[in-house]
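Reading group handout, session on sequence-to-structure problems. Before we discuss, look at one worked example. The prompt was deliberately terse, the way you'd type it at a terminal:

> structure F-box domain-containing protein

The input record follows.
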Amino acid sequence: MGDDDARAKRIRLEEEPHHQELPHGGDGGGAGAPDLISRLPDEVLGDIITLLPTRDGARTQAVSRRRRSTRRPGHAGPGRRFALPGFRLRDRLAMVDGWLRSRALTGLREIMFSYSPENCWQPPPPPMPPFALRFAATLCVARFGSCGFPNEVAPSLKFPHLKELSLMEVTISEDALHSLLAGCLVLEILLLEYNKKAPEATKFQELVVEDAPRLERLLPLNPKRGPATIHVMRAPKLETVGLLSAAISKLEFGTTAFQEMIALSLGTSMATVKVLVLESLGPNLDSVVDFLKCFPCVEKLYITFNRLKTMKNARIYNPLDPIECLELHLKKVVVNDYRGMRPDVNFAKFFVLNAKVLKEMYFGVVPSCNDMWVANQRR
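And the output record:
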C-alpha cells in the first residue's frame, strides 16, 4: 500500500462517526448495541423517568449506572401523575394529605383518586383529601371517585388547563358542580357517572351544558345512573356522545328535543358529532333514524338493544328525503345484543341497504349461537 493510500485510509477512519466509541452492554444496551438513551442530558433523562410508571422507572434505574445518578434524592420531583385508585382509607386521611402536600408534586398534571367501596357503604362518603385540589392551576386530567367533594371551595376553583374531568360516585352539591364546571376553561372530556347531590345524597336529576367551547366528549355512561335530564346549549366541538338511553327522560341539543329516545322536535343540527352511542328500545329503528337526523355527520354508530318493546322495523328509505348521515358519512355500525329475530334483521338490513359509504358492521351475539344460526343470518 502506498503512502497516498495509507493517508486516505487514515482520513476515512478519522471521519467515521464516533458511535464506535459508545459503551456497550453494561449501561442498558444489548450485546453490541450502543446505549443512546444514556447520552441524553440529565434534565431530559430525568423527565423521561418521571413519566414512567413507578415500577418501570425503578427497573430502568436498576440496570443503568447513569440513570441511577439522575435519580433525584427522595423523589424531589417534578411528579407528573398521582394515581391512588381504590384506596382503603381506614384512618389514613392525614397520611394521604401529607403525600399530596409534597413539593415533589408541585406542577402536577394528572390526578386519579378514589376510595375503595368498603369505605362508602355507609353515608356520608369519606371526604376527598383537602390538598387534592391544590393542583388546580396545573392539572390537565382529573379523575375522582367514591368520595365527598368539598363544596365550599368549588366557587374559588379555576382549572385553566384541565382537559378531562371524571366524577364517578362523587357526592357534591348541585351549586358546587356548576361552579366546578364553570372553572374548567378548556374542558374537552366530561365523564359523569352515578354522582349524588349533597347533603341529600340523591341522584342528580339535571345536567346543563350551557357554554363549553372545547368540550369534545359527553359520556353519561350508565343509563341507570343519571342524570335524568340533559341540556346541551352550546358545545361547538362536541364529537362523541353516549350512552344515550330512555333512562334519560328528556334530552335537548339546542332546539332539538327527545323524550325517552322519541323525537319531540328536530331543530338544531349537531354536525360536529362523529361518534354516537345509543341504547334503543325494541330496537326502534325510527328513533335511531331521528337521532341520525339530529347528528347528520356521524361516522361511527354504536347501538345496544333493550327489548322492553317489540318493533317491526319495516321502514322504507325515501331517496327523495335523504338523510345526510346515511348518504355521506356513516362508515361503521356496531350492534350489541343482536339475536337474529325478525326485528333485529330488519334493523340491520336498513343500514346494509341504505348507508351508502358503510364499510364495517359488527354484531355482538350471545355465545350460544351455533354455526347453523350464523349461516342463516348471513343468508
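Points for discussion. First: Residues 8-30 have pLDDT under 50 and may be disordered. Second: The chain has three domains: 20-69, 79-204, 208-222+230-379.
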